[in-house]
Amino acid sequence: MSQPAAARYAAADWGTSSFRIWLIGETGEALGERRSAEGMTTAAKTGFSAVLETHLEAMGASATLPVVICGMAGARQGWVEAGYLDTPAALSDIVRHAVVVPDERRDIRILPGLAQRDAVRPDVMRGEETQLLGSVGALSGTRLVCMPGTHSKWVRVTDGKVERFSTFMSGELFDVVSRQSILSHAVADAGAFDGTHPAFVAAVAEAMANPAMATNLLFTVRSGQLLHGHGATEAKARLSGLMIGLEIAGATTMTADAQTPVSLVASGPLAGLYTQALTAAGLQSELVDADEAVRDGLAAAAKALWPA
Amino acid sequence: MSQPAAARYAAADWGTSSFRIWLIGETGEALGERRSAEGMTTAAKTGFSAVLETHLEAMGASATLPVVICGMAGARQGWVEAGYLDTPAALSDIVRHAVVVPDERRDIRILPGLAQRDAVRPDVMRGEETQLLGSVGALSGTRLVCMPGTHSKWVRVTDGKVERFSTFMSGELFDVVSRQSILSHAVADAGAFDGTHPAFVAAVAEAMANPAMATNLLFTVRSGQLLHGHGATEAKARLSGLMIGLEIAGATTMTADAQTPVSLVASGPLAGLYTQALTAAGLQSELVDADEAVRDGLAAAAKALWPA
After folding, report:
1. Band (A178; pLDDT cuts 50, 70, 90)
2. Which of A211, A218, A223 sits opposite B211 (nearest CB)?
3. Does domain A127-308 sit in CATH 1.10.275.10?
């Protein structure tokens, strides 16, 4: 295969359990895309270089095409440790702390994560900083950025600088509680639901109104089924709403000003659920596609790394 | 084997995953005790009657010795469904709703659970009502009863009547998060700790002060290890303190009066952890051994069922 004539660099988002790569052209357009489950966990066994080169070859990339990477590939247990930039951190500084992967035939850079070295609320991110760079890095003013997922991040950004952020384990808790706890019986065989499901909307409101009762509200997913005959889809929508409502209750303590605009960086079903939940919480949000955000962030980094 | 001369009845606490039985003598003393892992889940496959008779025979019980049982043996998926007594419920009424197990050669009664058929906070218990009967059933005045465990119960009782109660999934969440989430790495190889561990005490206070941040505080168990080098024992003590602190934050919303006395019905390590956590929360508590409470509750039921 021959490399598309216009490819300037490749950009990869290398997470714990997923790998995505794009070939990017002269004007920033995606000339090709590949996705796989060869995340850090897999690649740490099979070899990061081999995984990357296989995908580049399949896309017809030249042997010297440079590559910019964000995410867990830069973790200690990843390919090459890229360290952390400490908060408060200007998003434009990320690229200056990129590390070069040694002994490779092409120029490969891995972007660092962000660390909040706070005594009480230590926190870390890897990958989301690139989404931030791509979504709100060039905006002025203050906004809260909500980035839902396995480990949701809420980030307070002012004039391109990350002031502070908080990780919430909502997605992972939803997953382990759905599969491993007594609630697994309640949500088994649940059908599809979206953010307009009444049980979801009610659960968001209940968790926000009384976050201290979180682990009791979780139990009502089961007791509601036992005593009120609630169905599995209703139970799952309720469980989802409780986790997201609890997260929003906590996250909104990051700003005393309810008028701070919220940017929701998400894709897939979570985009819809969080849009509805934020509305139910009385917050206006603007949706930014998470895939576009990470690609735009990698593009901004590439532009700084390899000026035309 | 011959039955101890003085045995008047047998009393069993038959939970989801555990079975305990005592032979009780004329003056209420325990003449023998057996414990096994043949809880409801196991007995539903091997046969409840067979499990019970095997243990009675091993203890030398006569063929006609009556048996009183509390717990999940009375659930729908148990031996014989014993239903629920609805709150508000006088603890002394439990025994009037006991069901007889049919077609057995001996007189076997299973005590009902309690149900709170509330639209917003539906809740159920099975087994704890018998501990309540044995611990606070005969006391006057109002108290909060804290019954820690896989599914902790907090119960408001006035003059022997259960007014309302709430189940918190603290124990099960601690378990699934410790074993199945990203925090499993942080707590692996943790040593023993007790309620005086500084990380436990601090975590109780943090969760109580900011329950809305619960799922963020959980993540700090990991980020504290990454950024501050916290050890596994510290991580596990922190995780435990966060779960218990969150529970206490919610449970204390059940009473507007911080002077309401708290009875802690617990045994084993949880008794120490909760005693410390309640003290840290500014609550005075009186410890009642959970094993004694259930045996005393079964004894009270037996006395009403089979008056001398």
Report:
1. very high
2. A211
3. no
CATH topology of domain A1-119: Nucleotidyltransferase; domain 5 (3.30.420)
Is the backbone of residue A115 left (phi > 0), alpha (psi -120 to 50) or beta?
A: beta
SS (H, E, C) B242-277: HHHHHHHHHHHHHCCCCCCCEEEEECCHHHHHHHHH
By C-alpha distance, the chain B residue nearest A213 is B250
Length of chain B: 308
| ipTM score assigned to the predicted complex | 0.93
Q: How far apart are CA B233 and CA B250, in angstroms?
A: 26
Position B253 scores a pLDDT of: 85
Q: Which CATH architecture has domain B9-126?
A: 2-Layer Sandwich (3.30)
Mean pLDDT, chain B, rounded, equals: 94
Q: Least CB-CB distance to B215: which of A119, A170, A224? A: A170
Instruction: Convert the pLDDT of each residue in B41-53 to its tens digit.
Output: 999 999 999 999 9
Q: What is the CATH T-level fold of the domain B170-289, as seen in this structure? A: Nucleotidyltransferase; domain 5 (3.30.420)
Task: Decide whether B9-126 matches B170-289 in CATH topology.
Answer: yes
Contact B166 A249 (CB under 8 A): no
Nearest residue to A193 via CA among A270, A107, A302:
A270
Contacts of B168 (CB under 8 A, 6+ apart): A215, A216, A219, B151, B152, B153, B154, B247, B250, B251
Tell me what pLDDT residue A6 has: 81
Q: Which backbone phi and psi does B59 adopt, to 5 degrees?
A: -90, 0
Q: What is the pLDDT of residue A223?
A: 95
CB contact under 8 Å between A169 and B122, yes or no, is: no
Domain borders along chain A are: 1-119, 127-308
**pLDDT the model gives residue B267:** 94
Q: Cα A47 vs. chain centroid, distance in angstroms?
A: 24
Query: Which amino acid is present at B189?
Result: D
- Quick: pLDDT tens for A270-290: 999 999 999 999 898 999 999
Question: pLDDT over 70 for what percent of chain A?
Answer: 98
